Amino acid sequence: MVFQIGDVAKEVGVSLRTVRYYEEEDLLEPTAVTPNGLRLYNKRDIVRLRFINTLRRLDMSVDDIKAVLGLNVPAPGTKAEILERSLKALKLTNKKIDEQQSILNDLKKHNTTAFESVLTCLKCDRPSCQDCPQCVFIL
Q1: What span, in angstroms and rounded, lies between the C-alpha atoms of 49 and 8?
Q2: What pLDDT sits at residue 133?
Q3: What is the DSSP string of 6-57?
Q4: Alpha-carbon gap, residue 99 to 58, rounded angstroms
Q5: pLDDT per residue over 86-96, tens digit each?
Q6: 37-57: per-residue pLDDT in tens?
Q7: Long-range contacts: 19-24, Cβ < 8 Å, 24+?
Q8: Is residue 21 within 8 Å of residue 31, measured between CB atoms?
Q9: Is the pLDDT at 139 greater than 60, yes or no?
Q10: What per-residue string of b and e applies to 97-109 under the rule 16 or more CB within 10 Å gives b?
Q11: Looking at the predicted structure, is the pLDDT value of residue 24 above 80?
Q12: Cβ–Cβ under 8 Å, residues 68 and 60
């Protein structure tokens, strides 16, 4: 089964321009292009696009994504080489996810502290916030 570019973009939740950009950067290639220029993709292409998009959302550069996908080295020949490349890509992705999760955890902790501080300030009956240690989080 093949899908047109609009269907693929919609399925992954990206714009047509994003799909084209990934093609321009050689991260994605349509399964086929019809004589009139219509790009066609299969399920595997959709999985690849979703993976690329996830890596971008993890703030990976195009060059890093190329490295993860093994686009900067010769194509693997054996099943073991293909699986090893996939395993390396997944490990790198997990590392990036862990890094982002750490950033989000820190942000959540800081936000919770600030939230509690502002709630405390709401109950305060001081005439001014000047020199108040609780007010460090007030924007």
Answers
A1: 8
A2: 67
A3: HHHHHHHT--HHHHHHHHHTTS---SEE-TT--EEE-HHHHHHHHHHHHHHH
A4: 9
A5: 888 888 888 88
A6: 999 999 999 999 999 998 898
A7: 19/49, 22/49, 22/52
A8: no
A9: no
A10: eeeeeeeeeeeee
A11: yes
A12: yes
The rounded distance, in Å, linking the Cα atoms of 4 and 30 is: 9
The pLDDT of residue 90: 84
Residue with tokens 């502290």: 113
- Amino acid identity for residue 106 in this structure: D
Please check the confidence at residue 138 and state whether its pLDDT lies above 80: no
* Residues 62/25, Cβ–Cβ less than 8 Å: yes
Q: Which two tokens stand for residue 39?
A: 């790009």
Name the packing angle between helices 16-24 and 43-57 (round to 10°).
90
For position 136, what pLDDT does the model report? 63
Task: Copy the structure tokens of residue 48.
Answer: 């690849």
* Tokens (6 digits) for 33: 């292009």
46: left (phi over 0), alpha (psi -120 to 50) or beta: alpha
CA separation for the pair 94, 61 (Å, rounded)? 16
Instruction: Check: CB of residue 54 under 8 Å from CB of residue 25.
Output: no
